[in-house]
Every structure is written in structure tokens, then in C-alpha cells.
Task: structure prediction
Amino acid sequence: MQIDTSSPVMVTGATGYVAGWIVKELLEAGLTVHAPVRNPDATAKVQHLIDFAEASSGDIKLFKADLLKDGSYAEAMKSCSVVFHTASPFTVRVKDPQKELIDPAVNGTRNVLEQASQTESVKRVVLTSSCAAIYTDAADCAAAPNGILTEEVWNTTASLDYQPYSYSKTLAERAAWDIAKQQSNWDLVVLNPSLVIGPALNSNPTSESFSIVKQLGDGTLKAGAPRAGFGVVDVRDLAQAHVAAAFTPEAEGRHIISGHNTDLLELGLALRDRFASDYPLPRRALPKWLVWLVAPMSGLPRKFVSLNVNVAWKADNSKGKRVFGQRYRPLKDSMEDMFQQLVDRGVFKKS
Result:
């Protein structure tokens, strides 16, 4: 893969979990990265990006921008050849899904891509979508062709009332494709990652992924973990996929980026060799009937339990491997690196 460093690129949400690794990859490749952030003067949030630039052959320029403000990205996008749009909320604990999930995801995508249509230098937009735009529950896999999710499948089961995060990602990606079809200056390449795991580069990651892994080590699941099926991908592998999506000329359409078909218990078991003696990791699978019974007390809809627990999740990641030469590191390595970071931050107490 040949990377053109003659023009800058822009990364939205540059201080975020996934975007941070993308920025690092781009800087190490020698690119100038334009990073629009809410407050460029908030040193604690942007210092790690500045440090990456100083240690690399690339350069970073910070810009003030607001995801929901029209025209906010014009200055940052000026002269950029590639736009990476990663900024979108990832949380399942919301009081107002429309305001906290749908509006930022959809309107933010529209603002960024419509600005790309007004910026002559932009030739490619790489959108960080999600496998959530393909499915809602593991049970959806059974309804997919041959029982496996592919890039041809779209999420039709999420709604504002059920799994609104998945609904937000579906609406945002559909909006992106609509905008892409209305112009001919740039092409759209979409990445659909599964649950992202692995270490963060910023000191206080807020991704929902860390909330899930925290429960594996803080005693919440010491009695056992449900075998709730989903896929996972290491954040470092995902960042490399973004760079490939930007600079692989033949890349087009959607790409499932997922390293492993797994479940919640398996994530916990991947940590046992290294951490079981010190932390209350889950040792066994909780029976589905028990998970269903206590679901309301855990904030889980019983519908979610029925459609995900003891249901295998399967996705076809062959397109990313074929087009990008994508490779995936072992699940155990990703989980151990992520868990160790939480240990180092003092998140857990030893048993």
C-alpha cells in the first residue's frame, strides 16, 4: 500500500478511543493530520496527540469544531484529501436516545460529509460505522444468508425504543450513503467494526467497551458471565484498517472489520491465565434462565437476553482481508493489554 503524504488528512473525534490510534498510525506514516476538537486548548485531552506528532515524522494541527454546528469543519477540512469521520457517541446508558444518540450520530455525519462535498480537495471519505448497522441481536445472524452476517445485510430490527445505539449507527450510515450518491467529487469507504477492544491511548477512555471489560474484573460477574454472542476487534487492527481504507484505490463499499466471533464469558476466560489469581474473573457460564430472571435488575431488557444469550454470533470478515490484507491479533493479547491498562489505572481491587 502506497500512502500519499503530499496533502493533509482530517480525523473527526481525534481524542477518541478509535480515532487516537488512527491519528497515531497516520502520523507514523508521515502525514499531516488536521484534528478538529471541541477545545484545542484543553491540554489534558490533546497532549497525547501532540506527543505522537513530536515522536513521528508527521505533523498535527488542532482546530476548534462542533460536531452539530453547520460549517464547523470547513477550516479543518481545507486542503485535505481524505476525511476520516469517527466521531459518534458509543453508549447504551442514555435517558434521551434521540438527543444523546440519534442526533449526534446522524446530524454529525451530515455536517461532516456535506462539508466534504463543498471541499474540492477531498477525494475520499472513510466512515467509521459499525456492525450495529448490520445487526441488532445475535439472533439476527440466523436470518442472514447462510446464517452469517455480510456487508450486504442491513439492520432492520433496532429502533428508538430497542437498542437505540444500533439504530443510530444504522441511520447515520444510511445518511452517509445518501449524501455520497448526491455528489461525484469524493468516494465513500465504510468500515463496520464489531465491539472494539484493546488499550486506549488517552488516559481516561470513555468507550462502552471499557465499561464491559470493567465488569469482568470488578466482581460484577464473579458468579459467572452469560454467553452473549458478539464479535470483537482490536482497536490497533481497526486503526490499520482505516489507513488501508484511505489509501487502497480499489476499496469501495462496506467492510466488516471483526477479528473474532465470541461471547462475554470467552472474554473473561481469555484473562484467566494472567489475572485470575488477583481478580474475581468469571469462571463459568450463567444459565440463560437466570440471566433472563435478573435482567431487569441489571438494566437489561429480557428481549435482549432471549435474542443474544446462548446465541452464536457469526460474521464474514473476508472482504477486509482480501481488499486491505487485514490481519487480526489473538483475542487473548487484546484482552490482556486492555485489562492491564485498567489495572494500571487502579480501576480494580485485588481479590
Remarks:
- The chain has a mean pLDDT of 94.
- The longest strand covers residues 187-193.
- The chain has one domain: 9-344.
- The beta strands are 9-11, 32-37, 59-64, 82-85, 124-128, 187-193, 195-197, 229-234, 253-257, 260-263.
